[in-house]
């Protein structure tokens, strides 16, 4: 007898072929049967008539490193069809950690990934581990709604071995490099799925300093490549210098993109393992990404393993009165900031308060880290700011920007922004469309997604909790690219599914999942594709210590299975927790 049979659906199997009608049977956590009409008895039957059936999504760029301590659901991923996540990206994480040394790692994570430090202090089980293998053992003792894999973060490693010298980005000695290499080797033996580092000066700790590892010499990086060669496994994940622009205001990046590609090619050839790295379109050089992809293809043709990691939409920065906004450091606003939210809105509706805030100066936050100065990101950004209201237009035109609307109303950009934020009881959201929107459309994104060398990632699920909500990207790409796009060509649904499932699973050596084939894990989504929909943004105060985050729910997931266990039913959590730690 089968455990579950999914009847009458159209399979988008992750292998890239056209969807086809078939039933699918599950037994003991595995796909046991795929046939046009399964007649075997089953303990549970799912009616998938009119629905599509896909493998569970594999999200390779998340930051749940702290959240795994206090949350077994792991939203936003679990509610958006994701059944496997990889964390420990961008070189940041919480192991290894010296005794009583958590504050330095929290400063890095809060500064880079916008996860409230208070939540990390209170929510993480500090003291339960010191080394990375001990961290994996801790994770291995827990149960989740989906599977998790962890990478060794360079910043934590450098902090552990070098202390203040590591945090100050001083050059590593031979002894330092040997010690770090030994720890990475132990981590791979314990089951780490990869190693990660960041080389962009845009990634800064709360003190404003580039995170540990930013300026690491090539010799240091190559030590880790040698460890991976000996281990014979793992992915090297890297945020290269220049990937988000030259950042001249911060002093300029340490290397050119050409130099970074050459280094990544050395890593891949030395380690014999794949290298995946952030690739975005930025405004300073809007066509630079084309060179990166072309060079990656050229090097791969001669034996390298470079996987440019691309996003399915612009990297959007959200603003609202409840989160970050351009007026939050204005002198008059600061006098209101501790009032209950409804009173803040009521005060801001008063003409005299509006006039005062609009004419005020900014009061420095005293924080060097990016989030302490988040308001500056929205100052002067009106030409790239757009409403986020149902029905959300995810690919807006320039004439829909706040700047264009302000001009049409005879207002300044700041006046328009102020009135927008205060209206409707302060419940409105807007988005600053940054990277991947230099052409004011998504043509570059489509070309990146379709390129044969790329992988889909960069969702940052679990991070940027008050600024970016790209953790919903697996649902977004299905609806926008597979069904709803009007400003250009769509992307075949079978291509999107294959790239979000088998392509990512294969990259990380997870060959037991990622496609609907007999003998594979039963990580499966049943989706009402015609009605799949992203809802309104919500601000929830559900992090430890009362921390808040932005979430966006989905509607249309009839069922999600993780290793044959149903974790979601009609967009609701079933409470079942079959997810476990993946050890490479």
TrEMBL record:
Cited Pfam families: Amidohydro_3
InterPro entries linked: Amidohydro_3 (IPR013108), Metallo-dep_Hydrolases_sf (IPR050378)
Span of domain Amidohydrolase: 45-536
Protein name: Amidohydrolase family protein
Species per Swiss-Prot/TrEMBL record: Erythrobacter ani
């Amino acid at each position: 007898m089968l455990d579950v049979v999914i009847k009458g659906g159209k399979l988008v199997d992750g292998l890239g072929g056209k969807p086809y009608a078939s039933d699918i049977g599950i037994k003991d956590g595995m796909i046991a049967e795929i046939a046009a009409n399964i007649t075997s008895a089953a303990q549970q039957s799912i009616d998938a008539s009119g629905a599509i059936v896909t493998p569970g999504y594999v999200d390779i760029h998340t930051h749940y490193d702290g959240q795994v301590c206090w949350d077994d659901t792991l939203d936003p991923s679990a509610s958006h069809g994701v059944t496997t996540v990889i964390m420990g990206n961008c070189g940041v994480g919480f192991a290894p950690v010296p005794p009583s040394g958590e504050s330095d790692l929290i400063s890095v994570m809060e500064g880079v990934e916008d996860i409230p430090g208070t939540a990390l202090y209170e929510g993480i089980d500090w003291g339960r581990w010191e080394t990375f293998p001990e961290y994996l053992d801790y994770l291995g003792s827990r149960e989740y709604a989906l599977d998790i894999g962890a990478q060794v973060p360079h910043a934590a490693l450098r902090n552990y071995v070098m202390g203040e010298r590591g945090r100050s980005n001083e050059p590593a000695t031979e002894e330092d490099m040997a010690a770090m290499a030994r720890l990475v080797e132990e981590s791979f033996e314990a089951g780490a799925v990869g190693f990660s580092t960041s080389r962009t000066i845009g990634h800064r700790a709360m003190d404003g300093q580039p995170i540990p590892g930013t300026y690491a010499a090539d010799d240091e990086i190559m030590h880790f490549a040698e460890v991976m060669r000996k281990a014979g496994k793992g992915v090297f994940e890297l945020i290269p210098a220049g990937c988000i622009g030259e950042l001249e205001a911060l002093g300029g990046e340490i290397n050119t993109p050409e130099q970074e590609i050459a280094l990544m090619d050395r890593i891949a050839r030395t380690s014999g393992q794949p290298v995946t790295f952030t690739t975005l379109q930025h405004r300073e050089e809007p066509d630079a990404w084309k060179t990166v992809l072309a060079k990656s293809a050229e090097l791969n043709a001669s034996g390298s393993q470079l996987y440019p990691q691309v996003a399915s939409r612009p990297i959007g920065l959200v603003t609202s009165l409840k989160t970050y906004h351009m007026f939050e450091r204005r002198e008059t606003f600061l006098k209101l900031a501790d009032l209950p939210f409804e009173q803040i809105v009521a005060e801001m509706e008063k003409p005299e308060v509006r006039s005062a805030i609009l004419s005020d100066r900014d009061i420095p936050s005293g924080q060097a880290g990016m989030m302490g100065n988040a308001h500056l990101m929205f100052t002067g950004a009106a030409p790239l700011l757009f409403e986020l209201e149902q029905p959300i237009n995810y690919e807006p035109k320039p004439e829909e920007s706040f700047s264009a609307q302000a001009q049409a109303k005879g207002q300044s950009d700041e006046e328009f922004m102020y009135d927008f934020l205060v209206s409707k009881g302060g419940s409105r959201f807007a988005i600053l469309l940054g990277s991947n929107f230099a052409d004011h459309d998504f043509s570059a994104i489509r070309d990146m997604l379709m390129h044969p060398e790329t992988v889909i990632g960069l969702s940052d699920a679990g991070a940027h909790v008050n600024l970016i909500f790209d953790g919903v990207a697996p649902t977004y790409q299905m609806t926008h690219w597979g069904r709803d796009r009007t400003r250009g060509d769509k992307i075949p649904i079978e291509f999107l599914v294959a790239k979000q499932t088998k392509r990512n699973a294969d990259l990380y050596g997870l060959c037991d999942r990622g496609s609907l084939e007999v003998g594979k894990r039963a990580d499966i989504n049943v989706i009402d594709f015609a009605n799949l929909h992203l809802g309104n943004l919500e601000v929830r105060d559900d992090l430890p210590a009362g921390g808040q985050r932005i979430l966006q729910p989905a509607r249309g997931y009839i069922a999600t299975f993780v290793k044959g266990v149903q974790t979601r039913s009609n967009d609701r959590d079933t409470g079942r927790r079959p997810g476990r730690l993946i050890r490479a």
